[in-house]
Amino acid sequence: MQDLNTTAINTWCPGCGNFAIHNSIKFVLTSLVGEGMPIENVVLISGIGCHAKIVDYVNTNSFYSLHGRVVPPATGIKISRPDLTVIGHSGDGDAYGEGIEHLIFAAKRNIDITMIIHNNRVYGLTTGQCTPTSPLGFKGRSTPAGNKELPINPLELMLASGATFIARGTSRAMEPMKKIFKEAILHKGFSIVDVLQVCVTYDNLYEYYDKHVYEMTDHDPSDYDKALARMREWDYNKDARIPLGVFYRKEEPTFEQNFINAPVSPDVRQSMVDKFLSEGA
Amino acid sequence: MQNFSVLIGGKAGYGVDKSGTVIANILGRLGFFVYVYRDYPSLIRGGHTYSLIRASSEKVGSHKDGIDLLLALNQDTIDLHKARLTDKAIIVYDSDSVTSDTIPQGKDAIYIPLVKITQEDKAPEIMRNTCLIGAMCKVFGIESSLLDEVIKKEFSRDTELNLKIAHRGYEAACSARKLEAVSKKSLPVFTGNEALSLGLIRAGLKAYIAYPMTPTSPILHFLASVAEKFSLKVIHPESEIAVMLMATGCAYAGDRVAVGTSGGGFCLMTEGLSFAGMAELPVVIVLGQRPGPSTGLPTYSTQTELLFALSAGQGEFTRLVVAPGDVEEAYFWSQVALNISWKFQIPSIILTDKTLGEGSYSFDRSLAKDILEENPISWDHSGTYKRYLDTQTGVSPLAFPPERGAVIKVNSYEHDESGLTVEDSPATIKMQEKRFRKTVHLASAVDAYEPVKVYGNKKAKKTLLCWGSNKSVCIEAAKKLGLRVVQVAVLSPFPATRFKEALDGVEEVISVECNAMGQLARLVSEYGFKVDRSISKYDGRPFSIDELLEHINVIK
Q1: Which of A226, B214, B256, B444 has a CA-to-CA distance to B319 between 20 and 30 Å?
Q2: What distance in Å separates the CA atoms of residue B201 and residue B131, rounded to the nearest whole number?
């Protein structure tokens, strides 16, 4: 198998939570390749932000997109080539802010892609502003007197939008995260993993998460109501226990399946066009 | 030259638009060249809407002010258009909806009780239009078998009832003018949107993505209706932002893809357009112009997006911008745009407008050229694959995932040949120059497709200068006045040499544009060409031939 490292110089801050996500995804890809998935079938897509550099650091097919625009190209790629394994990496500002409409529609369509959200709840690359998941009162550079908005709960939003695989991990717990990534990638349908990743420079929540997170061991992810209740245990704002693991999982028909038609040869295509042109549309 | 106009009018929801197509097809079968101008407001029910069908023994693509046959489904149609009736005009009207004392004196008027007829046959009210078309055929002395033929083709639903109602209209009317067939050759009728769609398919379209917006929604509808037949992926996503970025994903995966919109949607696409320029992903954008700023006149026409199309998107990058002038050119240039996009891995913009997109024209196959589909340069599987390999033409060999042994990386950041992000000066210069190098090769490729065309009196010292849908009206005016016409079909890269040749011997250039600023006039001035007079129209309506002649004659 090809080396998954590239020659790009890593510019994440020391201690950045992105390293754990980076190592986990490389580990999972290696494991999937070991089980027979060709590495050339993988496409990683990223937006813009610290998270997005990951595509420069993994030696696979990749699509370094625009801020907020991970889902649309991922959808286009999957529709054009349903045999590809399409994995989107996106930040919280990227996926839950600028590009939230796309995320909702991807869930609604149940397109078979995986979204891994590097959710550090702060804008890193633009140097420390609040994001859609920053808590009320968060003092960022655009909100020096404290954020006046409540955060959204992205898991609840995804459940309401029709996502068929919803999970949460943290960059502090790599082993469970690897397991979740692999399950999300193998899930047939739209899967999203919200990773509580820590930005050591602008919002160091390592200790906070260490005190609050727990792994769900007794949860039935096929139960919509229970999934919703678990998602509501923590609202990304008030102090509460933070459940980790797979909240919801369901099998549903996937969007890209609708576009698989028998190909039309150029000759047949041209004669059909000629027929139209002689008879009218 | 035989040359006349039929106007059918009513409210939105009366089937006026469909009537325009049916009448055009009937007249087309008599060998006439036809052109249909559709005027409708931005609403679903009510208002005043009309279709103006012009028929001529010569190729036609513009309307005239005078109406020779007025078909009135309601009172408004009489009131609003009676001033346009020619001396020998005939009026056929629904006597159940129009007050007979409002019919202008001295005109041949034929009344048909359309409401009564449809009610007697338990037909829906909308079938008044078929009844009126039946009456029209009788008025013109057209064989009822021809009427049947067209009704059968145009109405796949309720065909029998439509035939019955059309016949009742035919029987209720009387013959007033005998319309002789002008030619045995019967041309099919297409809208610009349909011809453009067929051109895209011909050139290998695999996916079409669009958010509905007048005047390009009919492309989405047409391609969706033939998607299975041509194995097309036709998608209507959440927004134009999604449309454009999804298209770049399809292109990355190897599918020839196009998107369609109007000015407002194109605003949202510009970040994706710039991305396509940087990432070198081929996407064709159909930009159907309608009047702005902002929502403007959503269902009317304009030529205000030329400068926008030329400069849209941050940064500097190579693009093809073409503006077809009629249906044959819509078919031709859409093939060129898709082919060129892939050959050079660049975005292409096809500029149309509501006049061309939603207008119907006789389609002359002999004027609509096919182009050869060229395969893009592919990776030869030697060495390490580099998505942005620097080459003499600036065009890098393509590979699509999954490709064993190749790592295919595209990037919105400045990047090195392998697609990894770079920010240093030498790498930036190298890659900028690589991308710009394509412009030169693009310009010479485009040169083979006649980017500038000359019509009319090719030796005249006075020329009309036009682009897009004004082509037909300019040719007609030039013919009457002995002028030359220069049409610029490729706007970027600007074909300056060909343009200079086209103007050889010209002493006076009169530009004709449906915008206020004279956008083509400004563009050519950048290349050192002077426009002596500008004729501008910015009310959302195309020039009628009479209106253009008047403008040319007045400004001296």
Answers
A1: B214
A2: 36
